[in-house]
Write a structure and sequence with these properties.
The chain is of the alpha/beta class. About 40% of the residues lie in helices and about 15% in strands. It has a single domain, classed as Ribonuclease Z/Hydroxyacylglutathione hydrolase-like (Metallo-beta-lactamase, Chain A, 4-Layer Sandwich), CATH 3.60.15.10. A 5-stranded mixed beta sheet has the order 4-5-6-7-8. A 3-stranded parallel beta sheet has the order 1-2-3. The structure holds zinc ion.
């Protein structure tokens, strides 16, 4: 079988050519792309994976089970996979080594991303997973420490954005980007601007929720 973690252009489009290389035509498994995904990320698997499903790989001597965990956020159809016998987490683009996941709205969503981060932490705790194998970058050890660092980084970025918006309420996306991502090389700003937009959407949602709650 060929398992796709999500539908972005540097992932799922490789599945069909890979499938064509094999005489037995292994099925492509994954979750179909969401309605808000970009046209370039359109993806339909041969069979849809379900959250909590176990993919069993067995021969006479060995059995390995891959647990499918739905992790929307980076992409709405993202899944991570845990190889239970070896206690390894295949994190796709949800957790990377050496870079931060881009969250590209509207298919990407920060609140969903953070919920999925918590889910990964609970999974690593429950299944005693120490190593993460991301789709980009080297293997990460001390899985739960890495996840905690990632979440703290994401929330710190959000706090920085909120501060900048408060200081410059009539600023443009470029104004806020320049300050909120001043520690990021300028060549990465086009990608960072997508994540900035995702955080602004979340801050806006939070503001509306707190306004609704404070009304008499
Ligand atoms: Zn991706």
């Amino acid at each position: 079988m060929i398992v796709c973690t999500h539908s972005h252009v540097d992932h799922a489009p490789g599945a069909r050519p890979l499938q064509a290389m094999y005489a037995h035509k292994p099925p492509i498994l994954g979750v179909p792309s969401g309605p808000l995904a970009r046209a370039s990320s359109h993806f339909v698997p041969d069979r849809e994976l379900r959250d909590g499903e176990l993919l069993v790989l067995a021969d006479d001597a060995h059995t390995h089970r891959l647990l499918v965990v739905s992790t929307p956020g980076h992409a709405s159809n993202h899944v991570c996979l845990a190889l239970l016998e070896d206690r390894l987490l295949f994190s796709g683009d949800h957790i990377l080594n050496g870079s931060t996941s881009i969250i590209d709205p509207p298919d990407g969503n920060v609140t969903a991303y953070l919920t999925s981060v918590d889910r990964m932490d609970a999974l690593c705790s429950e299944r005693e997973i120490d190593f993460i194998l991301p789709a980009h970058g080297y293997v990460l050890d001390r899985a739960r420490d890495q996840i905690a660092r990632l979440k703290a980084h994401r929330l710190a970025r959000e706090a920085k954005i909120a501060e900048e918006v408060k200081a410059l309420p009539n600023g443009s996306l470029e104004d806020w980007l320049r300050v909120a991502y001043d520690d990021v090389p300028e060549r990465l700003w086009p990608a960072a601007s997508r994540s900035l937009l995702a955080h602004l959407e979340r801050l806006d949602e939070q503001r509306h929720t707190s306004q609704a709650c404070s009304r008499p």
